[in-house]
Amino acid sequence: xxxxxxxxxxxxxxxxxxxxxxxxxxxxxxxxxxxxxxxxxxxxxxxxxxxxxxxxxxxxxxxxxxxxxxxxxxxxxxxxxxxxxxxxxxxxxxxxxxxxxxxxxxxxxxxxxxxx
Amino acid sequence: xxxxxxxxxxxxxxxxxxxxxxxxxxxxxxxxxxxxxxxxxxxxxxxxxxxxxxxxxxxxxxxxxxxxxxxxxxxxxxxxxxxxxxxxxxxxxxxxxxxxxxxxxxxxxxxxxxxxxxxxxxxxxxxxxxxxxxxxxxxxxxxxxxxxxxxxxxxxxxxxxxxxxxxxxxxxxxxxxxxxxxxxxxxxxxxxxxxxxxxxxxxxxxxxxxxxxxxxxxxxxxxxxxxxxxxxxxxxxxxxxxxxxxxxxxxxxxxxxxxxxxxxxxxxxxxxxxxxxxxxxxxxxxxxxxxxxxxxxxxxxxxxxxxxxxxxxxxxxxxxx
Lengths: 116, 321
Hints:
The structure holds two protein chains of two kinds. By secondary structure, chain A is α+β, with helices and mostly antiparallel strands.
């Protein structure tokens, strides 16, 4: 049976959902505003769309995992975000999940290598 | 401030209508665009802002990212949309036929109101009734979905499940041969009916003696009824011929709709002075009711078939999205 052509793009979007949560919670250990987060992530060799990041930050804030406050002292108003204690706990939990998933994939990869 | 930025934010605002945090969201986007224009496009002039706006994304897409992903109808309840609609519509259609037959209005406040309808009115009423039933079922499933509760919706195992009607699985060529066979037979019947009509101005006879045929109906009624029946034959023949080249269900929908109209014409034919032969006075009213009931039953069957094809077309479109 022949499978469908792989559509990495849409699968990657699905995988990214969880990853972006961890990424944002990890980045916000120090206060950052949206644009600086986008640029920082870009500097690490990854890209996140602005119109994906802001709704995510809003959801995180709604759940009490991050807080935000406007800084009006500069040339332009900037909204700074910071992780909360609940956010740190969530981040630790998500990292555990992620590590476990990596471990499982590693195990399977080793098993497959032995079979071949 | 750039007019383009304000127009862009206004458009996003339109798609965020009703959300309490709309102003806050717009401020975040404005702040980001100004930041990007200054850092990447050399300032906060109109040209720089316009570039940053262009890169942010289409307003509707941007707004949609802020909307919860909760569907209008949960996937688990989607199949009940057509199940319940077909069930409710079957009851609705049966009651409509009853209302026409009894020449009375039927009221089941606040769920149902079928006014006193003539046959033509009923044919016009049924498609609207179907849409109403679909709307009511949608609203109920919407509220169940939004409640977030795990409601187990009932559906009898033996129930008629329009949702499970599958397209024919036989190959196109096998169905083509069957369709061609049907088309040839229907063409022969239509031609024979046309031949009879051209020769005798009617296709209804009480004897089969072609040298001295005796028409069943009076000349005017016979001509009128013959034309309607020949038109029905012709529609079926045309539909079968078209279906030799396409599997589109719209052919069935069009054929059913025209047939419904023609059955409506038949039902609308005055019964008095219809027969050219003598019929006993006491039998005539019974004959009238029997004919009306048969035609209404045919109309109901055609309507169900029409709805079935519309549901299958709707499901296919839903599956594509």
